[in-house]
Amino acid sequence: MLYDAYEIQRSMLAGASAFANFSASLLNNPTNPFAYFGGGPVVSAALEVFAHAAAPRGKPAFGLNSTVVDGRQVAVREEVVVRKPFGQLKRFVREGVHGGPRLVLVAPMSGHYATLLRGTVERLLPTCDIYITDWRDAKLVSLDEGRFDLDDYIDYLIEFLEAVGPGAHMLAVCQPSVPAYAAACLMSASRHPCRPKTLTLMGGPIDTREAPTAVNLLATERPYAWFEQNVVATVPVLYPGAGRKVYPGFLQLAGFMTMNLGNHLMSHWEMFKHLVQGDDESAEATMAFYDEYRSVCDMTAEFYLQTIHTVFQAHALPNGEMTHRGVRVDPGAITDIGLLAIEGERDDISGIGQTKAALAIATNLDDKHKQYHLAMNVGHYGIFNGSKWRTRIAPVVEEWIKAHD
Question: Using CA atoms, how far apart are residues 190 and 202, in angstroms rounded to an integer?
Fold first, then answer.
């Protein structure tokens, strides 16, 4: 019933958004005399803000068509290297450019699409041969394709690394830090030739007992059964994945919006003022951010629930109790992978120390293969997007990869 109610509301808001957008266009039309009198600009701005907030959203495009390599502009095209039911490995091919470190970016499966890392990809494209995990919206995957849980996620990462080949590097942002670390442990234990040369973890919940945030507390203050009963929904019949149990993306988005509701309200107020003043460039920057932020997808219920238990409630990885298909995930197996842990001083999703814990539990890894970077005055999103990422954090990642390539 929850998902059906949401679909009804979404359909109603889509119509209201279209009408508001049409009305705003009329008021903004220079041939309309009412656009120059009274509160025309104010009403038009209010309609635009509402239309943007209520508009339905699908999967965004990366839109990265070119980059600059060694001072020259080169074309970029996307290529699917591995296609799986619940995700694919995508490569950004730089036309005419050969060589360079091969880097697998592990995008979060946490309600947003891989395009959330567009800024990450764009900044690293000039120096690295970039691959990215492009996870699929669970509501679009037929029940015939079976389940997808945390064990499957780890299997996907290992298969993706095998497809890229020996000598690749891996970078995980936020949620996938745990499965990426687990994959590195398992591949190290078996001396797999395709284990990554380096693993960079950014704002990840390796040990959420360190500086717990509101997100961590939500997962620990309620029993496992509460999540099963209250946040799992069934995909409606209008989608290919009809009947699949999922954690809906709209619930995840609602939770994130509520955490920082004041900031989001202020952002929309500033957008409104920019539109009234005719500062379209500033307003469009805010719109672009929310176009991405509000583009959400569903996760399979089994993946979400297993993550809640394994990562946030049992703290299985730092406790040495995490298993993958019956095999213990041993951080001590990592002996030759360069580990880089990056945290943001103002991260309200993964607190300070949660990602750094990855270095401490790798007990058999020499200190020369470990590095920690605390980005001052940086929040969670700023670790991998924005000017501070581009100028202060990305160079650290590039130097670490270069030193181990």
Answer: 25
